[in-house]
Amino acid sequence: MLEILELAASIGDKPILKGIDLTVPAGEVHAIMGPNGSGKSTLGYVQSGRDDYTVTGGTATFNGIDLLDMEPEQRAAAGVFLAFQAPIELPGVNNANFLRTALNAIRRAHGEPELDAVQFLKLARTATKQLAMPDDMLKRNVNVGFSGGEKKRNEVLQMAILRPKLAILDETDSGLDIDALKIVADGVNALRAPDFSALVITHHQRLLDHLVPNRVHVLAHGRIVRSGGPELARELEKSGYAGVIAEAA
Amino acid sequence: MAAVTETLDTVQSVTQSGYKWGFETTIEMDFAPKGLNEDIIRLISARKEEPEWMLDWRLKAYAAWLKMEEPHWARVDHPPIDYQDLHYYAAPKKKAGPKSLEEVDPELLKMYEKLGIPLKERAILAGVDPDTVENTQVAVDAVFDSVSVATTFQQTLRKAGVIFCPISEAVREHPDLVRQYLGTVVPTGDNFFAALNSAVFTDGSFVYIPKGVRCPMELSTYFRINARNTGQFERTLIIAEAGSHVSYLEGCTAPQRDENQLHAAVVELVAMDDAQIKYSTVQNWYPGDANGKGGIYNFVTKRGACRGARSKISWTQVETGSAITWKYPSCVLHGEDSVGEFYSVAVTNNHQQADTGTKMIHIGKGSRSTIISKGISAGHSNNTYRGLVRMLPSATNARNFTQCDSLLIGDQCGAHTVPYIESRNLTAKVEHEATTSKIADDQLFYCRQRGLSEEDAVGLIVNGFCKDVLKELPMEFAVEAQKLLAVSLEGSVG
Lengths: 249, 494
Fold this sequence. Notes:
The complex is a heterodimer of chains A (249) and B (494). By secondary structure, chain A is α/β, with parallel strands linked by helices. Chain A is 40% helix and 25% strand. Chain B has one domain (2-488). Chain B has helices at residues 2-13, 38-47, 52-66, 106-115, 121-125, 154-160, 167-173, 175-181, 192-200, 441-449, 454-465, 467-470, 475-488; strands at residues 29-31, 90-92, 138-144, 147-151, 163-166, 205-209, 218-224, 235-240, 245-253, 260-263, 266-271, 276-283, 295-306, 312-319, 324-327, 330-333, 339-348, 353-362, 368-377, 382-391, 399-408, 414-423, 429-438. In chain B, helix 1 (2-13) packs parallel to helix 13 (475-488). In chain B, 58% of the residues are buried. The chains are: A alpha/beta (249), B alpha/beta (494).
């Protein structure tokens, strides 16, 4: 279970998050929607430990562990995964190498035996097959020369292989065609389990058709201004954010 | 795939910090007194039981050296070197001279073990049945300070007609070959350090590959500077006759010490028609401590002559050690359609200084050269690529492609690229590309978000940056090289 209480964070002097209260119980998928610049990506970065952000108040715990007190790689080992809105390129670093190094780092942190190349490749091929991705995705350098859609799909592949307990998807569906969108939804749905939680940041109802969230939250000006069931997303799709935000103000 | 696997394993397994190879072997040494003069040269020559011509050659070089001045054009900075304050000869005291591995001093074998000599060498040195390591056979000529102590696989090589022995032995056993080629690629008066080496060189390797022979195994030499205040002046000569092939590996480590030690080697390669020489180096000599105290001065002259048509010389180097590196492995491309290659990774951290690159001298028609240089600077270090591409009037349709990439880690280090291009033939083509980049914070964060520690992330990114060069190394060497990159950059971020 993810519990965020009165979380406030800033970049330099500029406050971005101004007191977020959010609980995602184990086994649930919640959607975060909201206009551009409302702090959605910041919420993802702060939970995963990007150091450009200063936490100025509040707490964030996952299964009772204080996330804000840990290094990014410790949070990853605790099961936190962030699918980046703009995935980063690593020239010369083979995707399979990268993923195996990451997976083994996490396994080491759990005291589990590391996977050798053969074991890893088997696991990775199963994942590419499930996600209907070509195997050569694994051979290419991490995100280098990938199209926008391929980069997003690569994030989903990484998630499928690392099997996080808390997945934060930052607009992973943006710029994707319907088929790719379904891959993203399938990726999350495949991980659904009683001990898995997800925060899905999106602008589109379309994704939520495939990935029915337990709750939908609207973030505006650094606060959650409204929460509701899946029907809230449909309402927003129809009438936009203005009404909801005005109502909250 | 196997190499990739091992790579990951090694990158991850490297968690210890500091210079791993800083131990000293307590074998009784036989020293010449400090200082350099004709008598010392005579002593070295006598200890090596050299013929008269060799001594004359040395003395001529010494006379030339006396008239020369230490070069100061490189972007490196060091206090003056007192050439009279060094020992020019040190050898482990001989009992009878090892005839087989059993007779090699166990202390020495233990040292190789500590060194983590990679590949199969240690097993071979330890006396493992050579048949069991058949597929990746590596012959080792280990240079422990100044005397080659263990030479393996002589039998197999001899059957192929290959000569692989200490150069001091070659001077005695194959004087005609040595006289014919020694100093023809790097003349005694070529430069200050080459002249010094010619006067006082103590050991090194000699390789002769006869016509049409493909050397049946990789040849490998381990150099190691052990005695305090001993300059190591090794000299290597490799001759590849027409149609022959050879791959030669050189690895270097030195124990940790406070004084700076001087290392001035000369390597000469000769490739005749259709011959190919691949020369790979992994250099991880003691770089000095975090404050820039101590470390090796590595002032090396390496040059290959592609004398024959379609001959090819390929230099691959991974330079992670030494306080100062001054090194420009070069190719003189005489032969028509001859090929020169230079692949380099140079890493500097803390207060290390590297000024390294290559010279490609195009003489033959249609000669081609490729230069790929990857410089990585961290800490307070300075890393310079200095390269010359010269197209002589005879070099019709010659071609060069140069790519120099620099990677900066932190904001206290420097990367410099100094390309010299001279073209005196209108049909020759020279291309130069250069980039400078930094390890971006978002790259580090991306890796760490996936679970990698900061140091593993740097190791992965740096290895990715160097991939084009590392893939040129023989497989087992590549693994060691990648491990070294990670070790050399420890503590460079955060």
